[in-house]
From TrEMBL:
Listed name of the protein: Diguanylate cyclase (GGDEF) domain-containing protein
InterPro entries for the chain: Biofilm_reg_signaling, EAL_dom, EAL_sf, GGDEF_dom, MHYT_dom, Nucleotide_cyclase, Rev_trsase/Diguanyl_cyclase
TM annotation in the entry: 12-30, 42-67, 87-104, 116-137, 149-170, 182-201, 221-241
One Gene Ontology cellular component: membrane
Keyword Transmembrane helix: yes
UniProt cross-references to SMART domains, sorted A to Z: EAL, GGDEF
Record organism: Albimonas donghaensis
Alphabetized NCBIfam families for the sequence: GGDEF
UniProt feature, compositional bias: Low complexity: 699-739
SUPFAM superfamilies: EAL domain-like (SSF141868), Nucleotide cyclase (SSF55073)
Length: 739
């Protein structure tokens, strides 16, 4: 038959427009899908497969609806209709097949064969749906398909649609979207034309039509409605996806620029804000800029006593307290741990100090945590643009110097940068270089201070104390260099040297004498610390039970599980562990509860005022009672007077250490002093023991520079040796000696 007379070209044009339009929309979305990864990409591919399946079904259904179905003999209309179940079934099959085809490449790494298979499946599905819709037609006659044209469609459609998919969404070397869309624009009308030409009709008036058939108009409306709904759903899906993606990007950007615990800006945010503020200051928009470093004081004891949850609550409380105190343009950022940095554009020196004072109110405000009021202070270092620097790095460096100076003071201090701080920093850098040279040139030596029985002065052991024989400054105590060693990391090598040297020296003593070595937090944090102790014992031949490792509260590293493991391993070796400077910190009782100590050493601060200060006496008495209850021996540090010795002995203290029993001396002097002491009254045991008759004969204050001591923040001027003794306060951390 003449198919041009039997077919409505307007329907063919509509089918082509619907197919090309939705296909172009689909290809645009495929470009968007290439940007997605993981489950979102898989979901997008399924959605686009559904849209493609609906498009194929709609186009092929419209193609069939274009037939007039008239009698070829006289042109009279023939009765016909479409089986709705078959039409709906063809829609479901088309959507399902295309959804599966589009899911062939969910990984985000398109391959040529996958694109060809996906496009070819689309072409085959189009031809198949066309045939399925024709089979759903009921007419007074017989629908005849031209096998040659149907075969051509089955070959050409997959080829053209496959090439279009390859150029639209294949590998990058094949990616030519314009060419792909052009082929698609030709393939769809071509497939429609071949499908129309392949159909003919043989009338048969005897055929009776079943009831319930759909007529072309309702079916056409259904087709257009389904297309509109699915296309709208795809656009809605895209809009929701874009919104969620933007929301996720905003959230990730916020997380990238803000501290997750406190919600304050982080270092990345700060650095961007600092550069922007510097640009504005240089341009004159807001002349002047204050950079303020904030470091919390007494924060570690909060963690140690109350746990890390309390520390987190305190940080969040500080952030909340600071927020209402900030003026427009001011920034308060958390840069890590208990450290913060604040910015104030356009600030003068007085305005910067006022800002720091406001922040001090926030950092000192009490924070409620499980019924307790937690409170800390802070130290502040201030650098100003342009006086103290023109660049961000310079300002931050000088802010750190000012903060370092503030931390050296009693706490809650605000310090402005001045040039003398640079000179001090250069001195510390020079000292660090000299320390490295001293390690290489064997310029360190150990002095030993006796630990004795209070009852008769018999020596039970010695504490090893490091000295540095400086080429120009003479013999230096640890207070002159251990702080620099801690900051530079040299303390690890120095501590290892002390451990080996002390064990080697003690191996030649009377087997009843112990050797005590203090270790730093950096040493404890080393994964091979226990192995280092074992190596020192093996190399020296010292019995493990003669070595006593002393830990100050500053040595209580934050990872308590690791510290417990280290202490357990040391005790497995047979090494004893003592808690040094007991009572000087904030978490001494908690440390005794959490860690298996073999000895308690009472801090010298309480011993020095024993008998004159009721509080010190009470603390010493309670510590001795606690030691007896726990079965832990107690040693009193800093014993300087016979009266103090008698009080301690009366309270039940067994051992003591201090100038009353002897000053620290080099190993070479131990034997010589023992020989002198042997001629004096009083018991002598071991290489050296001070005689009872000489206990009150302490060298005049100031005659010894006190190189056996740690740096103490508030040493009395008339007792340099005492306040810097190796058994001194733990407030200086591991600065007491090298280990």
């Amino acid at each position: 038959m003449n198919w041009l007379e039997q077919y409505d070209p307007r329907i063919a044009l509509l089918a082509a427009l619907v197919g090309v339009s939705i296909a172009l929309i689909n290809s645009r979305f495929i470009s968007r899908v290439n940007e997605e990864q993981g489950p979102r990409r898989l979901l997008w591919m399924s959605m686009l497969g559904l849209l493609a399946g609906v498009t194929v079904w709609a186009v092929q259904t419209l193609v069939v609806l274009g037939f007039r179905w008239t009698d070829p003999a006289d042109g009279s209309p023939m009765a016909f209709g479409y089986d709705p179940s078959s039409v709906i079934f063809s829609l479901g099959v088309s959507a399902a097949i295309m959804s599966v085809a589009f899911r062939l490449d969910p990984s985000g790494r398109p391959e040529a064969w996958r694109a060809l298979v996906r496009g070819g499946t689309l072409g085959l599905t189009a031809v198949g749906v066309n045939i399925a819709v024709l089979l759903s037609l009921d007419v007074q006659g017989q629908v005849i398909l031209d096998p040659l044209l149907v075969g051509a469609n089955l070959v050409l459609a997959p080829m053209l649609f496959g090439l279009a998919a390859l150029f639209n969404a294949g590998p990058m070397r094949w990616r030519h979207p314009r060419l792909g869309r052009s082929i698609l624009g030709l393939a769809i009308p071509g497939a429609i034309a071949i499908a129309i030409a392949s159909v003919s009709l043989a009338p048969d008036p005897d055929v009776e039509l079943p009831k319930g058939l759909m007529q072309p108009a309702p079916l056409g409306f259904l087709v257009m409605a389904v297309c509109a709904i699915v296309t709208a759903a795809t656009f809605a899906f895209a809009m929701i996806g874009d919104s969620l993606k933007q929301e996720a990007e905003n959230r990730y950007q916020h997380l990238a620029l803000h501290d997750p615990l406190t919600g304050l800006p982080n270092r990345a945010f700060l650095m961007t804000a600092l550069e922007d503020a510097l640009t504005g200051a240089r341009d004159g928009a807001s002349p002047g800029l204050a950079v303020i470093g904030v470091d919390l004081d007494r924060f570690k004891p909060v963690n140690d006593v109350h746990g890390h949850a309390a520390g987190d609550a305190l940080l969040c409380g500080i952030a909340r307290a600071a927020e209402p105190l900030l003026e427009p343009g001011e920034l308060f950022a958390r840069t890590g741990g208990d450290e913060f940095i604040a910015l104030k554009p356009g600030a003068t020196e007085e305005e910067a100090l006022d800002f720091a004072r406001r922040l001090a109110r926030a950092t000192s405000a009490p924070v409620e945590f499980q019924g307790s009021a937690l409170s800390v202070g802070a130290s502040f270092g201030v650098a100003l643009f342009p006086r103290d620097g023109q660049e961000a790095e310079t300002l931050l460096s000088r802010m750190d110097l000012a903060l370092y100076r503030a931390k050296e003071e009693a706490g809650d201090a605000i310090r402005l940068y001045d040039r003398r701080m640079d000179e001090a920093q250069r001195d510390r850098s020079a000292l660090a270089m000299e320390l490295r040279a001293a390690l290489d040139s064997d310029a360190f030596e150990l002095h030993y201070q006796p630990q004795t029985l209070l009852s008769d002065g018999a020596v039970t052991g010695y504490e090893a104390l490091i000295r540095w024989r400086h080429p120009t400054r003479g013999l230096l105590g640890p207070d002159a260099f251990i702080g620099v060693a801690e900051r530079t990391g040299l303390i690890r090598d120095i501590g290892t040297w002390v451990l080996h040297a002390a064990c080697r020296e003690a191996a030649g003593w009377d087997p009843s004498l112990r050797i005590a070595v203090n270790v730093s937090p950096r040493q404890l944090s080393q994964s091979d610390f226990v192995e280092q102790v074992g190596d020192a014992l093996i190399a020296s031949g010292l019995a493990p039970e003669r070595l006593e490792i002393e830990l100050t509260e500053a040595s209580m590293i934050e990872d308590h599980a690791q510290l417990r493991a280290v202490m357990a391993a040391l005790k497995t070796l047979g090494v004893r562990v003592a808690m040094d400077d007991y009572g000087a910190g904030y978490a001494s009782l908690a440390a005794l509860r959490n860690f298996p100590f073999d000895k308690i050493k009472i801090d010298r601060e309480f011993i020095e005022t024993l008998g004159s200060d009721p509080q010190s006496t009470a603390i010493v008495r309670s510590t001795l009672m606690l030691g007896r209850a726990l079965g832990i021996p107690v040693l009193a540090e800093g014993v300087t007077t016979e009266a103090g010795r008698r009080i301690l002995e009366a309270e039940g203290c067994r051992e003591g250490q201090g100038f009353l029993f002897g000053r620290p001396v080099p190993a070479a002097e131990l034997a010589g002093r023992a020989a002198i002491d042997a001629d004096r009254p009083g018991p002598v045991s071991g290489p050296i023991a001070a005689p009872v008759a000489e206990r009150g004969s302490i060298a005049a204050p100031g005659t010894d520079p006190g190189p056996d001591a740690a740096a103490r923040p508030a040493a009395a001027p008339d007792s340099a040796e005492l306040t810097s003794a190796p058994s001194g306060s733990g407030r200086g951390g591991a600065a007491r000696n090298s280990a």
